[in-house]
Amino acid sequence: MTCEEGNRVHFDNALDLTGAIRRKEVSCREVLAAHLERIERLNPTINAIVTLTAERALEQAAAADDRLANGGEVGPLHGLPIAHKDLASTAGIRTTYGSPIFADNVPDRDDLIIDRLRAAGAITVGKTNVPELGLGSHTFNPVFGATRNPFDTARSAGGSSGGAAAALATGMVPVADGSDTGGSLRNPASFCNVVGLRPSPGRVPSWPDAAPWGQLSVKGPMARTVADVALLLSVVAGPDVRNPIALETPGASFRPPLDGDLRGLRIAWTPDFAGSVPVDREVVEALAPTLKVFADLGATVDQACPDLSGADEVFRVQRAWQMELTYGALLDEHRGSLKADAVWNIEEGRKLTGPDIGRATKLHAALYQRVRQFFERFDVLLAPVSQVVPFDVELDYPSEVAGVPMRTYLDWMAACYLVSATGCPALSVPAAFTPDGLPVGLQVVGPHRQDRQVLSVAHAFEQATGVGQRRPTF
Questions:
Q1: What does pTM read for this prediction?
Q2: Which residues are known catalytic residues?
Q3: What InterPro entries does the database record attribute to this sequence (predicted)?
């Protein structure tokens, strides 16, 4: 592998790149230079990378080459370019949260996930665009503007990890980190034909964290292949005593290779969550052929869905409470600088009463048990990731889905956020394209804490179809 091979280096997977760097077939500086060239050429159109740290990255790449040349110990991501979501604090690098309130904010410390990525040898090239304060699954904000879909620049790249997904799809970076409350790792992955994993709560611990017991928001990996997502998860997962819900399983247990044998697997498929979620016809039609792929791989597929009654209320109450906790002070001090959806959601949190939270807690407990029992009969659940295909980039969010009006900016994300409420790991894997050439992802949901099983099922599907190898034309 050499950078003279043209654009190929931009789309080599992370496992191949790290192997080539270790074998000294290509230097860290060459790999970085190739990606920086890609960013320079495409980012003005896509707007995925919003704060570029090229000079700092070049210094890190030179140090990484020296370390390897001198026989020093190197991590599993040694020399790999990465961009961090602009919601994650990065020491010495501007972190805006997509908000004018924080347009000049430069943190003095890294979030835990950034610490782990840097310790593993990844080289930061910049920050990826997000919606204002990370709200919603469409990436636009008053600081940097909108991120555009690489497959149709007139459409949304999804969100809130939309900048990350678009950067991956265009070959600006081989891996990226993200976060997910109501679909922010999965929706943009679906819109941009890449892979995004929402891990089990506690799998990737957060620190610092104002609400460390919460299980609705998680951090996780994104890449162009499932194996690369597993590689990234192996670095960022694992216990940390500063986080009270951190799972004890070592991150290294998720390292590739992944098992691709689906023979005898019991799969449930729901096109619309038992009729509770409106889904546009073109999404359902695009995903319908995927069921045969699983059957051909030896799995049994039945249409079934866990009883998710109460999940909507659980999600909305927990999100509103979280919004008030996190951003309540901003509402008091900067109401005029917050977008209307943020003001609404924070105020929803302020309306909550003790009985409201108590009822949601009971519903959550019952939901967990029903989902647990469902996965005694099935090994995995398949569903649409997004209820719509990528929509007009100028819209705030779709006004209706399958003829059903969307009352708030959250409604069109239900296919993801209902799964968030269950606490199950879930992944978006490239699955299909519409006749208009728009990507459609398949959501793979596993039993509680069975993240590796989700990765293995998605990997087998990915290898059988090759849909994720389709690239935008630039």
A1: 0.97
A2: 85, 160, 184
A3: Amidase, Amidase_CS, Amidase_dom, AS_sf
